[in-house]
Fold:
Amino acid sequence: ETGVTQSPTHLIKTRGQQVTLRCSSQSGHNTVSWYQQALGQGPQFIFQYYREEENGRGNFPPRFSGLQFPNYSSELNVNALELDDSALYLCASTQGGAPTNYGYTFGSGTRLTVV
Amino acid sequence: AQSVTQLGSHVSVSEGALVLLRCNYSSSVPPYLFWYVQYPNQGLQLLLKYTSAATLVKGINGFEAEFKKSETSFHLTKPSAHMSDAAEYFCAVRNSGGSNYKLTFGKGTLLTVNP
Structure:
């Protein structure tokens, strides 16, 4: 079975630009979450998508938005980039609705640098 | 609201010595608890999880953790450290029940293993 795949692995953007990060969930998983991990910090929950709808959001402004597609892959979009958006962005998938599955499979992340 | 505190941002041990990484949680409902490991430039790998079954949980690579409700703790241990254990370790909590699988992470503990 394939794991979670994220692209690109690294990205450099200029302040004020927009960026799209992509994630392919693990086979059989229908729920995707995104996390932001700043340098030296633990991951922070951005939002979660289940069956193409957002069903949970952390303390991130509306310029952070997302999509989930019918094949359960997902995108994270960030508008009006700020220097503080520089971080490792992690995507994680799980099987929603399955009460015995309480863990996520994480991808290797996209390292975003805003200059 | 749920939270996690990891005591000690950096722990250094000798190869073959006991590894003890501390985690205390706060949760208004019965929690699910996790330990993840992150190697440089990689995503998060699940070491073990507590989901209200046995309080002593065994994970991969010889790690285990004990859930102590009275102490609100979930410390990670390994009897004998190996050089390959050097990495960053994150404790995370999730509320049991519901459809939002948000994980709240601690700030992480960097484990160094000396030869």
